[in-house]
Amino acid sequence: MSDPTRPTGPRIIAVANQKGGVGKTTTSINLAAALAEQGLKILLVDLDPQGNASTGVGVETSARNYSTYDLLLGEAPLTEVIQKTEIDGLWISPATVDLSSADMELVSAEKRSYLLHDALRQIDMDQFAFDYVLIDCPPSLNLLTVNAMVAAQSVLVPLQAEFFALEGLSQLMLTIREVRQNANRDLRIEGIVLTMYDVRNNLSQQVESDARATLGELVFRTMIPRNVRISEAPSFALPVLSYDSSSKGAEAYRHLARELLARHTPVKTKVAG
């Protein structure tokens, strides 16, 4: 039952695509940084056992005393899991390799698909007053990804501008539909963002054309270009906005953040008590 005295909760977006190498983690990191640059308070939840989102915002493995894994299992309080990054307005729930065994360990848990949902709606969240939570999902449609979709209000899908790009979407859309039917009826698709786009490449242009013809307004106007600065930034444990603020990659993620904010008024959604 909802508690009317509690503050409203953040808007929660799962960043998901079961196909690897599409710019999912890169988009999670840089969209989070771009939203924070707008003066919003952002939590980035690293749900990928590889932990690249955590590394990409400067959280070293040795500094991850508690992780999203502990959050899911209830083995550490939210206040001890979440870390402030060196980027103004950006916090992270870091990942460790422990998440790689989460599917097997969680399968017998009661309400196993709702663990992240409940963790992100506990009273401890109120003190942070986050505006947005972005969840970086693993590159598979496993129990962790289902947890993200049950916890989220919407799913943002990075789509690499390459041959067969659209074919991999069908299984993801099916999973979203199943989650909507069985666990989270309000889940919607936030949008599709084309990544690694090369304006000089006919194939990129064809993929864009096909995507817009098939998915219409779901496809963001902003496209993330293939950009060397975006590729270099993770090796310096920085979002591209910090690594090279004036680069085309940084500007693209700023445009994406503004377009995301314009798609809906940033009115927070009531959380369950």
From TrEMBL:
<dbReference type="InterPro" id="IPR025669">
    <property type="entry name" value="AAA_dom"/>
</dbReference>
<dbReference type="Pfam" id="PF13614">
    <property type="entry name" value="AAA_31"/>
</dbReference>
<dbReference type="InterPro" id="IPR050678">
    <property type="entry name" value="DNA_Partitioning_ATPase"/>
</dbReference>
<dbReference type="InterPro" id="IPR027417">
    <property type="entry name" value="P-loop_NTPase"/>
</dbReference>
<feature type="domain" description="AAA">
    <location>
        <begin position="11"/>
        <end position="189"/>
    </location>
</feature>
<protein>
    <submittedName>
        <fullName>ParA family protein</fullName>
    </submittedName>
</protein>
